[in-house]
Amino acid sequence: MAKERETERLRLTYGQVGGGPGSLIGPVHRAALAMDGQAELVAGSFSWLFDETLEAAKALGVYTERTYRTFQEMAEKESEREDGVDFVVITTPNHLHYEVAKSFLERGIHVVCDKPLCLTIEEAERLLKLVRETKLEFMVTYTYTGYPMVREARQIIRNGGLGDIRVVVAEYPQAWLAEPVEETGNQQASWRTSPKYAGISNSVGDIGTHIENLVHFTTGLEISRLSAKLETFVSGRKLDDNAYILLEYSGNASGSYWVSQVAVGNENALRLRVIGTEGALDWRQEQPDQILLARKGKPMAILSKGNEYLNEESQLFARLPPGHPEGYFEAFANLYRSFCSKLISKKQSIEEDKLFTDVLDGARGVKFVHDCVTSSNRGSEWIDGSFKI
Amino acid sequence: MAKERETERLRLTYGQVGGGPGSLIGPVHRAALAMDGQAELVAGSFSWLFDETLEAAKALGVYTERTYRTFQEMAEKESEREDGVDFVVITTPNHLHYEVAKSFLERGIHVVCDKPLCLTIEEAERLLKLVRETKLEFMVTYTYTGYPMVREARQIIRNGGLGDIRVVVAEYPQAWLAEPVEETGNQQASWRTSPKYAGISNSVGDIGTHIENLVHFTTGLEISRLSAKLETFVSGRKLDDNAYILLEYSGNASGSYWVSQVAVGNENALRLRVIGTEGALDWRQEQPDQILLARKGKPMAILSKGNEYLNEESQLFARLPPGHPEGYFEAFANLYRSFCSKLISKKQSIEEDKLFTDVLDGARGVKFVHDCVTSSNRGSEWIDGSFKI
Amino acid sequence: MAKERETERLRLTYGQVGGGPGSLIGPVHRAALAMDGQAELVAGSFSWLFDETLEAAKALGVYTERTYRTFQEMAEKESEREDGVDFVVITTPNHLHYEVAKSFLERGIHVVCDKPLCLTIEEAERLLKLVRETKLEFMVTYTYTGYPMVREARQIIRNGGLGDIRVVVAEYPQAWLAEPVEETGNQQASWRTSPKYAGISNSVGDIGTHIENLVHFTTGLEISRLSAKLETFVSGRKLDDNAYILLEYSGNASGSYWVSQVAVGNENALRLRVIGTEGALDWRQEQPDQILLARKGKPMAILSKGNEYLNEESQLFARLPPGHPEGYFEAFANLYRSFCSKLISKKQSIEEDKLFTDVLDGARGVKFVHDCVTSSNRGSEWIDGSFKI
Amino acid sequence: MAKERETERLRLTYGQVGGGPGSLIGPVHRAALAMDGQAELVAGSFSWLFDETLEAAKALGVYTERTYRTFQEMAEKESEREDGVDFVVITTPNHLHYEVAKSFLERGIHVVCDKPLCLTIEEAERLLKLVRETKLEFMVTYTYTGYPMVREARQIIRNGGLGDIRVVVAEYPQAWLAEPVEETGNQQASWRTSPKYAGISNSVGDIGTHIENLVHFTTGLEISRLSAKLETFVSGRKLDDNAYILLEYSGNASGSYWVSQVAVGNENALRLRVIGTEGALDWRQEQPDQILLARKGKPMAILSKGNEYLNEESQLFARLPPGHPEGYFEAFANLYRSFCSKLISKKQSIEEDKLFTDVLDGARGVKFVHDCVTSSNRGSEWIDGSFKI
Q: Where does chain A have alpha helices with state H?
């Protein structure tokens, strides 16, 4: 006992709902959390099959007594323990996000939830209300906001480095749904193209929301109107697999987004271009350590992660010197580091900036998906796309 | 005399309307023609100021007796000469294209006209009719169709290398009109942003038409419907400087175009991506010697100009071995080589494929500009964008 | 107790020597180990200042009773504990590698040692002998061998995909020592340019060895002769900061290496090109997820991490789907996963391939550095560079 | 007659030796000259087969009376004509350069000669002497010096933009001789790998000299010592097809060159990197319109052809606005424009800078090839590589 006290440091504990065998994103959350060692996995309801939960628990070193058949049971029991988890990580299919998040918030437990936040605007509003009432922390893991150079983009723009923004062009093409793989056993494809599990949209919900968030996160622009055209190229598919979205933002800027999961030749090619009166920037997820920065009348500059000429926040988000590539895991780990750091300062009653995307960002994403679907259903009519909750 | 006969080969002569002092594209046409030496400049009305015409004639080695005060005079006189020009090259501002082209066609002289063909659909129809009646050759110089790798793209697609086309994403961002340079003496900017000289559109007319042509030339897709949003970012400007266009093509494909002249950081960044069920390709004007070619389930391939693994037509359009860059001038020269070659075979009554874009392509471009403006004026309404002349 | 047994899985424990406050690579080892959770840090002698060791232990959750003033004490005590560490991670400056490794090997503890293995050929030979006698596992962490696409390169070459190798061109330019930063408080620079801590070479020892290892790892080529030219551009510096090395390999291949730490504009730009009779490949550390693969007469192919068209081993080393960047940490984690996996199979008496670079690779590196220095000292004389231990 | 006088401008005439049917570079010279129309081809001895000369003359519009069976006859006759050629263009195989150049110089005719200047140092000295005595202009067409961004590199370096130069790394890999194509009818390969026609070296003579010239042209560095290793990978080949060259320059800089014609996967990949104390630059022939420019502590900049932020000379060498690719032909045309411009000013007794590489550059190249061969023959011994003529 004495031994323990000597080495004790402020370390958090967490539980996970979802993320059992076969999950893609579940293990990413855990690995990201492990990188900084700020929080330990001690509880879980990893699957709706309890056998799978037990199997996962064993593999992950979680005591059987803190495994749970249902997330409700987990929320209840963990909230009653003196050493109950500090936060829960939700990595279930989308349709469960709302109920799980709600259960834990109501039991006073902080929440991390993969995007999208939930399936309907009403759910989003209720979660937002709950968070405001409980004053709990709620992170929605928009992974790409964890990249150092996305932070740099945000700082450049917010500091006026591009002047007034005129044009935003963003795209997120992938190829993995170019064929009806949901019919041939691809689990990810199955639930993502199923209205029951994924909600009203596939491509816009899954990757379009990343664009929406990335644009808002880096530019602060608010959408005023939008027109969307959602398409389904693969015959028999129930949800969209390609979409074009045109936008007007407050303050005279306009934009164009393209998302596709039938774009043969593309892997995960999220790209953001923001063009202002004085400069422009260009960031690509597949080369996340760089930004191309144009300034009127000057040569293009290649900003590279970790250099001293960058803004403080982006330097803080780099873990290695320039030229040492950091990727998707590190972006995720950066989000968790910010989140855990926030919880720890809270415990210590220290004020700290919130450097992660939260329930409000999640709600904005849900609204965006609904607006896109609505516009598309009305023949790509231009509709009000503003977000006021 | 005898001497001359000994060395005689079938060489063409041409005259030029426009292209005098200050012209950007006029000298490009001449240099492109000079590269292959198939045609000699022997006549001209290079400016509406006769002094400038005389000055240009002197510099270009054109005899004074074949300089003309007006294009009408030139058409008349040249058609009457036994050694009159084989063809005329029209490099005036857009608003004169129609009248000049008409004059020469009516006098039986072949025509090369810079794009856009003319300003109104009616003009386009009349020119088209004239060409059909006279059976004269009429090339519209869509420069980018002269690049070897654009020919390769065309061949790949036409040979089914991409399967059925699903998505076309094209863009043409430039930065040169990000400021109101038309107010500070930039001549190019002045006429291009003037409805009188440029017609109903600036950015769509000037560079959007290149996209329209490039897509049609390489894919053969016919537009069925389109929705356009033309914007003017620079205050006081009379025509559009940024535009988004969404499209449906015959055969279930869709597309998105973006053109901009306020895109700081971009030079002349025309890019075409065509995505099909089996493959996809990506071509960029600023690296014209390459195509990225994706085939489902295989690594991306980088096709490079002049290699033996390419299609015959693209090899024919390469003048140098692989790795020896060919650019804008060579693309232009390739068009002229095709055109002159066609005229020469005609003189020799030889059948030959027509490897250049013609009056029909020009008319299609005019129609496209009008459709975009119409849609944009109606709040980006989706309208019929089909071309039937 | 019973609880613990229920969730127990085969998990390793490790201790660390070095890696205390101010260390660059120490935390990378720990984070890499944490990603897969196969081994837990339970002991340490993190600094030669015991206060710093205690400080680090606290931060890392290591019990005070398993912190040690010296590595000798640590080796002794840990070897005596029933729950002593399975392996030690050595992240001290280079000059201590030998003594630390020796101490642990002699106590029967597996070793992971950062490169270079040690400072002299004699030390290398003794370590090699010890490893052979004790049959302990000994990993030398040549980080770049952990990248999926380096594994792919190795497989392609070993499977004959390039034909017979003719030419190897490799380079590793950095900029960080372009100024005498060792004089202005840069700790990394101080010890790396100090003969006492870094041995007989700076640039060849630090980064040249990465090239040497990468070439051998991927191609299997054995150096037969070499000529080196080590240079010191920064005045007052005691060791080399730039070097050119020409090589002959067994089997008629030749090569050229360039390493530099004064190469302004470069970050960590390790690049390997291997050219054979039938094909060639090109890999860059700063875009580690790709290989450019040429095959005679065919278009260049861009191989991308995680795709099914790749070899099995490189797919195994990818943790995320294509297009999700993996970087330096993941490369490191891959090495540790291989190492831990080997230890675990050993405990379970399972035969398993050794997928990591070991003491022999380390010894080869030490020999290479000495050969380069010898040749350079003799006016770049060509000398026997073969490795036989 | 009067007509002619009216339109007369100062136009030059030239003749060509070599460049008949099957020639690669002959037509490039002619097309480059045609682009600016400053000089007209009026005489020629295009082949050692007179029938081929006649055939070429016919195709090129050269009067039969000015075709010649031998270059000697041509030099003699043209020098006697009142309207004799202003200059001769020599595009024969290398072994004839000396005799042809000498003949024309002795007859008072200016000379343009493709590189290499000649085969031996003695020949180079004699030509140099002749040029100095006759005060004739003599251009050696090192094509790559005609690129706008090579001019920019030169200006940047000469203006001290990189500080003191430390390291030069240059390479020129090609793939076209990876197989013994000289045995299967490839004419270019046949003469280039033949000691009789190409002299003592193939790869160093053909492409190594381009590196030597490019380095000297842009940096002004003088070689003091060098060590070379020439290799022949293709069995049966009589001259080198791969080479490594290490260099010391006056003023403490060092360098490494690699040339190869067996580098599968490469087309014409000449690349120059110059690294100084304050900055570094990187230029690639296959993307000639760009330079990567590093400055210590600042983001990498991408300089792009034709922009106003560039030096005056490089702007002058750009013919089109930024983003309009210019290639190999334009580089050549730029050289000829400089040369013709010099001849014209000479006729007008105007002083003008000489913006082209001349006989001295050619002689330097010949010396370089000999030094490389000498060093290689002596087991890559370091030898004096200085150039003093």
A: 2-7, 25-36, 50-60, 71-80, 94-106, 121-134, 148-158, 187-192, 195-198, 203, 209-219, 312-316, 328-347, 359-377
